[in-house]
Amino acid sequence: MNAIELEPVDGVRITVLMDNVTDPLLVDQDAVARMNWPKAILGGLPTGQARVSPETGVPDALIAEPGFSALVRIEKAGRTRMLLFDTGVSPNGMVENMRRLGIDPREIEVIVLSHGHWDHVTGMEGLVRVLGRGSLPVMIHPEFWSRRRISFPGLLTAEFPATSRTALQEMGFAIVEERQPSFLLDGAVLITGEVDRTMPFETGFPGHEALRDDGWQPDPLILDDQALVVNLRDRGLVVLSGCGHSGIVNTVRYARRLTGQDNVAAIVGGFHLSGPGFEPRIGATVEALADLSPSMLVPAHCTGWKASYQMSARFPDAFVMSTVGSTITL
Questions:
Q1: Is 2 exposed, middle or buried (0-12, 13-18, 19+ CB in 10 A)?
Q2: CA pair distance 242, 170, nearest whole angstrom
Q3: Three-class secondary structure assignment of the chain
Q4: Angle in degrees, 0-180, between the axes of helices 248-259 and 282-292, rounded to the nearest 10
Q5: How far is CA 322 from the centre of its chain?
Q6: 85 and 228 in contact (C-beta within 8 Å)?
Q7: pLDDT tens digits in sequence order for the chain, 330 residues long
Q8: For the chain, which terminus, N or C, has the lower number of CB atoms within 10 Å?
Q9: 8-46+58-329: in CATH 3.40.50.150
Q10: In a 3-state reduction of DSSP, which class is residue 238?
Q11: Count of C-beta atoms within a 10 Å radius of residue 273
Q12: In terms of DSSP bridges, do strands 236-241 and 264-270 run parallel, antiparallel, or are they unpaired?
C-alpha cells in the first residue's frame, strides 16, 4: 500500500463533550485540562438556580452519559479549524455540555460519525435545534444506516435504535458516504474509512447482527466503524476512535500503514473492551499497545474499567483518564 500524504499540523486539542464518566475532583496534568469543582465554582461553569442555595446557586454541572462525543480543534499555519466527532447518546446531553463549557457550535465545520450505533449519533438532534437547519457535511461509511441487533440464542435478542437517513437530511445535514480513506480540512485530517482487520484477537462483536435482504445475518465486524487521524508535527499520529469496533490495535496499525508514520503521539476514545465478550482480549490488547508505544493513551466510553485499570498500570506515564469536559492539548 502506498502511503497517503497526511500534512502535519502544529497542534491538536480534543475536548471530551460526552463520555460515561465525569469526575470534578481530578486536577490538571501535563497537556490535560480538567473542568473540576474549583474551576467550576470560580466561574468555569454557569450557575444553575437551586432553592437549597438561593443566594449563590450551584455550578451547572457537566452531564455524563453512556455515549461519546469529542470536539477536535486543529492548529495549522496560524489558523484554528474545528470539527465534531460523534454526538453522544441523547438529543440534548452533548449540546448542554457545549453550552456549559462555552463552546460555540457555529464554529464546527464538519461532523464525523464513527459508526451507526445510536450512542454516537443521537445528539445530532440537539445540535440542529441549536444551529437551525443548515448544510454541515456529515462523514459516514455506507453501512452506517444498517438496522442492527444483538442476539444470543436462548438468552437475549434486542434491536438497536437505527438512524433515519430521511431525518438527518431533513435537518439539513449534507451526508457524505465514503468507504475508503478521505481527507478533511484541506488535508489536515484523515478519516480511515473501513479499517483492515489484521490482529487475530480483534474478532469483532459477538452476537451482533444486521438486517440484510435475506433477514438477520451475523455482523460482528461492524464495517462502518472508522477513526480520525491527525499527523502532529514532529510527534506522530493522533488517533481518535469512537467505539473501536474495528479493534483499537487494528485501527492504529491501519493508520500507520495509511500514512507511513510509525510514531504514535496519542490514542484517544472507545476501545470496546468492556463486558464478558470482550474482556478476554484485554491482555493481548495491552501487549499490542506496548508495541505501538503511544506517548499518550486515553481510553474512554466502552473501554471498561478492567481494561482501563490494566492500561493505567502498564503505561503509567502515558495513561490519562477520560472524563467529560477534559481538554487534551497536543
A1: exposed
A2: 25
A3: CCCCCCCEECEEEEEEEECCCCCCCCCCECCEECCCHHHHHHHHCCEECCCCCCCCCEECCCCCCCCCEEEEEEEECCEEEEEEECCCCCCCHHHHHHHHHCCCHHHCCEEECCCCCHHHCCCHHHHHHHHCCCCCEEEECHHHHCCEEEEECCCEEEECCCCCHHHHHHCCCEEEECCCCEEECCCCEEECCCCCCCCCCCCCCCCEEEEECCEEEECCCCCCCCEEEEEECCCEEEEEECCCCCCHHHHHHHHHHHHCCCCEEEEEEECCCCCCCCHHHHHHHHHHHHHHCCCEEEEEHHHCHHHHHHHHHHCCCCECCCCCCCEEEC
A4: 20
A5: 11
A6: yes
A7: 678 889 999 999 999 999 999 999 999 999 999 999 999 888 889 888 888 888 888 888 999 999 999 999 999 999 999 999 999 999 999 999 999 999 999 999 999 999 999 999 999 999 999 998 888 999 999 999 999 999 998 888 999 999 999 999 999 999 999 999 999 999 999 999 999 999 999 999 999 999 999 899 999 999 999 999 999 999 999 999 999 999 999 999 999 999 999 999 999 999 999 999 999 999 999 999 999 999 999 999 999 999 999 999 999 999 999 999 999 999
A8: N
A9: no
A10: strand
A11: 26
A12: parallel
The model's pTM is: 0.96
- Grid coordinates representing 240 are 481518535
Contact in structure between 295 and 270 (CB atoms under 8 Å): no
Cα(95)–Cα(24) distance, integer angstroms:
19
Question: Whose CA is closest to 185, among 121, 111, 240, 235?
Answer: 111
Q: Which residue has the cell 487494528?
A: 250
Instruction: Report how far residue 37's alpha carbon sits from residue 326's, in angstroms, rounded to the nearest whole number.
Output: 13
